[in-house]
Amino acid sequence: MTIRIFTVDAFTAQPFAGNPAAVCLLDDVPAVPGDAWMQAVAAEMNLSETAFLRRQPDSRAFALCWFTPVVEVPLCGHATLASAHVLFEQGILSIDEPAEFDTLSGRLSARHTSRGITLDFPLQPVERIPDADVPDALREGLGVAPVEITGNSDRFVVQLGDEETLRNLQPDLRQLSTLQRGTVVTCRSETPAFDFLSRNFLPHRGIPEDPVTGAAHCSLAHFWSLKLGKDKFTAYQASKRGGTLGVEIIDERVRLTGQAVTVLHGVLER
């Protein structure tokens, strides 16, 4: 039995930039594979996320789950964008149809637009963390003085003073891995093309630095809406690969817009 699989670079229009995700189509598989098999495939692909996609019986929605090389995760932006891209590109859905996904984070959707693919995700607010409650591993792991530290149950969002500090940051990943939360650093952009920049470190999930992270922008959107007093942004994740996101808060949701390009497709033998 063969299973179609794709590698898609998300949040970029150029191959070999943005964040690569594998997308595995399971519609031709008689029985849904177990978690152990999906985890093994994700480890074999060795990308930050591998998405597994299967149309739900008697439904227009697709079941969607995401695995890093070491663990299943509850929410992933770039692999959702990659999944929608594959559905549209392969003609499984027409570009006029919304893609709907049933996930561990509830029903998510994606639409093809003139600017790319727009994802509808939950807003994930952050709160300021008092200095006395900041973990030593976070301070020591960053090795730089933050402007402010906020967070929620999924991640710390740390504001740095300037773009140079953010771009040159070389955190102690061993320290950050003990936090069992992601660490996102962010700052105001020094160029007018972007509102803010970020980088995202996820060593506790087997991802030293994630190139472009849609889910993190569900928290960054809330953080910067409080700082800048607006709800629509253009963001840049300043990893080595780099990627651009449109970000907009609407009620308690975040719309994330980005482009994607397929760089590889093939089959898995099972």
Outline:
The chain is α+β, with helices and mostly antiparallel strands.
Topology:
Elements: E1 2-10, E2 19-25, H1 35-45, E3 49-55, E4 62-67, E5 72-73, H2 77-89, E6 99-103, E7 106-113, E8 116-122, E9 127-128, H3 136-142, E10 148-151, E11 155-159, H4 163-168, H5 173-177, E12 182-188, E13 196-202, E14 207-210, H6 217-228, E15 232-237, E16 243-250, E17 253-258, E18 260-269
Number of distinct helices: 6
Write down how many β-strands occur, each being a DSSP E stretch of 2 or more residues.
18
Name of the CATH first level of the largest domain: Alpha Beta
The poorly predicted ranges are none
Number of domains: 2
Radius of gyration, rounded? Answer: 18 Å
Characteristic key phrases:
alpha+beta, Diaminopimelate Epimerase, Chain A, domain 1, 6 helices, globular
How does this structure look, described?
By secondary structure, the protein is an alpha+beta fold. It has 2 domains: 2-122 and 257-269, Diaminopimelate Epimerase, Chain A, domain 1, CATH 3.10.310.10; 127-251, Diaminopimelate Epimerase, Chain A, domain 1 (Roll), CATH 3.10.310. It is 20% helix and 41% strand. The chain is built from 6 helices and 18 strands. It has helices spanning 35-45, 77-89, 136-142, 163-168, 173-177, 217-228, and strands at residues 2-10, 19-25, 49-55, 62-67, 72-73, 99-103, 106-113, 116-122, 127-128, 148-151, 155-159, 182-188, 196-202, 207-210, 232-237, 243-250, 253-258, 260-269. It has an 18-stranded mixed beta sheet that branches. The mean pLDDT is 96.
